[in-house]
């Protein structure tokens, strides 16, 4: 079987200026996200909370915390960050365990995904796990590359990934758990794991995923609604049908920010998972095109950074963080457009959610840091393909 390793060993030569294009893209996405949240959530916030700026205010506070983390991670020596990994991993696991502690954890609709925080309403530890899992795997894969061939093993990395995934599944957050697992497998692939490893992973993972779906009626209903989108208009498909109507009503130019957004109040959770429907109705096909153009530039910058970074740990972690943000963005848009079943995965930079914006900005901070690290190798050696039988 073949496997590919896109990350050769690198030698750090110097530090350069941060990638200014990436910084501008992050600020653009964040700014557009805040504007979208404003015109999508004001009616809903006024109706249920008596404050039209309820979600925007909360997002701004969370964003301030996120920018602090982004600045810290953009400046810290990545090798010093590696020394903090045991604390980061342990902290993420403890936070997940707290969701099951009475008085600290919060249960909603049978799921225990949140914990209470002083001065803040809730915190979702699974967002921290997305961040921690990438650093954990990047650290192990970098160390494995330096070992003799006979001592290399993907087992420690896989066990760690499995623990992270199962602890999220235990919170009844199937979508996030599956997403974390898939991002982990992507990192396995690009760092040179033999493709023969993916056969047992798939043979175990697919039946387990099917069992997890069948154990919860609402997950089955999501699948039924997806495969019968013309049916169940007032039940399973109420949310997605209103979202698709809002998107089509935007036309080419859109209805404009704050002008007659008729469908938004009819789309449940418009401020979170379905905010892209609001952006599409307001800005039309032109706005959708702008979003994907910006996302394309974002993809190019982060993957270029991961290929050219002179530190292999930072390189792998940047690739993982970039993959997480991009895959999550595409997944959310596909769900809102009815291309995939509903998942509950938020849209990075846009969706209301303090935990999500904090760790999205933290990931961006790390990638900005990685963009500063140069290496001595010629450009053709930045990307290495290794074939193993």
Keywords:
globular; 62% helix; three-stranded antiparallel beta sheet; two-stranded antiparallel sheet; mainly alpha; 5 strands; 389 residues
Give the SSE map.
Blueprint: E1 12-15, H1 20-49, H2 54-75, H3 78-83, H4 85-98, E2 105-108, E3 111-117, E4 120-123, H5 125-145, H6 155-169, H7 174-190, H8 198-214, H9 217-227, H10 238-249, H11 275-308, H12 312-336, H13 354-370, E5 373-375
Antiparallel strand pairs: 1-5, 2-3, 3-4
Order of helices and strands: EHHHHEEEHHHHHHHHHE
Number of strands: 5
Strand content: 5-15%
Strand order, sheet with most strands: 2-3-4
Give the overall shape, derived from the CA principal axes.
globular
- Measure the end-to-end span: 5 Å
- Based on secondary structure, the structural category is mainly alpha
Low-confidence runs: 376-389
Give the overall average pLDDT: 81
Q: Helicity, in percent?
A: 55-70%
Number of helices: 13
Largest sheet: 3 strands, antiparallel
Would you give an account of this structure?
The chain has helices at 20-49, 54-75, 78-83, 85-98, 125-145, 155-169, 174-190, 198-214, 217-227, 238-249, 275-308, 312-336, 354-370, and strands spanning 12-15, 105-108, 111-117, 120-123, 373-375. With 389 residues, the chain is mainly alpha-helical. The strands form two sheets. The protein has a three-stranded antiparallel β-sheet, with helices on one face. The chain has a two-stranded antiparallel ribbon with strand order 1-5. Helix 5 runs antiparallel to helix 6 (155-169) and helix 5 (125-145) packs parallel to helix 13. It is globular and about 60 Å long.
